[in-house]
Specification:
The chain is of the alpha+beta class and 273 residues long. 20% of the residues lie in helices and 30% in strands. It has 4 helices and 11 strands; from the N terminus they run ββαββαββαβββββα. Strands 3-5-6-11-10-9-8-7-4 form a 9-stranded antiparallel beta sheet, with helices on both faces. Strands 1-2 form a two-stranded antiparallel sheet.
């Protein structure tokens, strides 16, 4: 496995529960957030005036941790884990087979960027400020939740890039270091109408593990709130649970808005309607 910079705030979702598949749990060195919630300060006033002439709230490390979702925000039997920063997924490692790309060959760079981003944990690029993460498990499914501050221009460009992927990278083939082939499919996925901007994708990666094909299905959901964003990555070998993904998005966005308003998010989830 290739080394990853220690400055990363998160590690990408993996399913380490299936023996004999292409998935492994990689314990790589790296920085990670904590689910511990600090009471204050949640948000600080920026010394830089916003375009409208008023100071914009700046997400602090304590605020990022306070904005995380918890088990109480999720239905069913999700359990929070302590090693989410070490999750790794080798099934997403690969080099795009340009010759086999179904769309324009010029889209190969975007498809490669998606594969690299899935493994390197930077769908939105590296955070420019505070960040925190929390991970949850339920049987063979995992959910990774991140909240972070970003550069405004880069955040907007990253969201625009994500919107193009269902067309540019609808289906392509990737090869691993041993010459094995993996089929990758990307489609748009609905995201609740929350925040200032949002984008959702579903990515399936099918490879060969043992004598049977192995398919990893991931739901990716990103919501922008000002210059901050939440990212939800969920799924596994057993498929996805869209209801849980959408619940995490709604609850997480509400928590982030509370923090930026100087409030403490409620300990229990609010109205689910």
């Amino acid at each position: 496995m290739r080394p990853r910079p220690s400055s990363r705030a998160v590690r990408v979702l993996a399913s380490a529960l299936a023996v004999g598949t292409l998935l492994t749990c990689a314990a790589c060195s790296g920085g990670g957030g904590s689910a511990d919630v600090a009471a204050s300060p949640l948000a600080a006033e920026s010394s830089l005036a916003s375009p409208h002439g008023s100071a914009a709230p700046v997400l602090t490390e304590a605020g990022a941790k306070a904005a995380l979702i918890t088990e109480a925000d999720l239905e069913d039997n999700w359990n929070q884990v302590k090693n989410a920063a070490d999750w790794g997924d080798e099934l997403s490692i690969g080099k795009v087979d340009v010759a086999a790309l179904l769309t324009a060959k010029t889209n190969a760079a975007d498809c490669q960027r998606l594969l690299d981003a899935l493994y390197d944990d930077d769908l939105l690029g590296q955070p420019s400020g505070a960040s925190a993460l929390a991970g949850f498990e339920q049987r063979e499914s995992r959910l990774l939740y991140q909240v972070a501050a970003y550069d405004r221009a880069r955040l907007g460009a990253s969201l625009n890039w994500l919107k193009t992927l269902p067309v540019k990278c609808d289906q392509f083939t990737a090869t691993d270091s041993k010459g094995g082939h993996r089929t990758v499919q990307v489609i748009e996925n609905p995201v609740p109408s929350v925040g200032d901007a949002r984008q959702g994708l579903q990515v399936t990666v099918t490879g060969t593990g043992g004598t049977e094909p192995t398919t990893l299905t991931l739901e990716l959901a990103v919501v922008r709130v000002g210059t901050d964003a939440i990212t939800v990555t969920s799924g596994g070998l057993a498929g996805t649970e869209s209801d849980t993904t959408q619940l995490a998005v709604r609850q997480g966005t509400a928590h982030l808005k509370d923090v930026l308003a100087g409030k403490t998010p409620p300990a229990q989830p609010g109205n689910q309607d």
